[in-house]
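Need Pyridoxamine 5'-phosphate oxidase family protein's 3D structure for a figure. Predict it.
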Amino acid sequence: MAAFQLNPDFAIEDERSLRGLFEPTHSLAILKCQNSLGEHAREFIRRSPFLCIGSQHLDGKADVSPRGDPPGFVKILDELTLAIPDRPGNNRLDTLSNIIANPNVGLLFVIPGFEDTLRVNGRATLTRDPELLKSMGVAGRIPNLAIIVSVSEVFMHCAKAFRRSRLWSADHFQDRTEMPSLIKMILDETTGAPTDRDEMRKMDEGLEEDYRRTLY
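Structure prediction for Pyridoxamine 5'-phosphate oxidase family protein:
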């Protein structure tokens, strides 16, 4: 595939040019931004089993990582502070390393069936406080550390993206079997996947067993 070349004549390179393409921001879109967790934001977080956390390294490299658990897994410590347990993963530690280098993070909370979302921005630190970690245990397993977010901005996000994508509409769910398994896709693009179907099946089963053993 040939590399895409952007025509510089159409590049938007300053905020004045950007804002000139749009109508002025609706006053409610400005007013809705709060600097603490209000009643509805707290209830949204208590109901949410899933969030995405955006972080950035000092060199400008950005990353977005999913976090998921039973509803209420993010602890509301007070109106300005959240705690997110860090569960077992692939040990790349992208988000955690970024937080050490640059504490600014953005959170997007999602609730299944809700088309609106909640956005929270703030600064993060990492902790191994034993009492806090103990309170975040699941199935007898305590997280190794937690991400503490000091909240600076909180606001609800409208439903347009979810309605356009029809994310929760069952008749728009796609058939997972139409693409290869996770392991096969990774191997196809790295070392090469085995051609023997039984060998590939065993690798897929091994991933499922790993999920079962190391989810927490």
